Amino acid sequence: NRSQLAYADAVAVSQLIAKGAPMKVLSTIYQSNPNEVSALKKTNIKSIKDLVGKKVGVPSGSSQTTMLPLFLKANGLKDSDVTLINMPPTSMVPALLQGQVDAILGSIDAYQIQLEAQGAELTNFRFADYGVPTVSTSIFASNAYIQANPDVLKKFIAASLKGWSFAIDNPEKAVKALKTVFPNVNEKLAASELAAIRPLFCSGGAKYIGKAEDSLWIKSQELLSEVKLLPAGQDPKSYYTNDYLPPVASLRACKP
Question: Each residue of 59-88: pLDDT tens digit?
Answer without folding.
Answer: 998 878 888 999 999 999 999 999 999 999
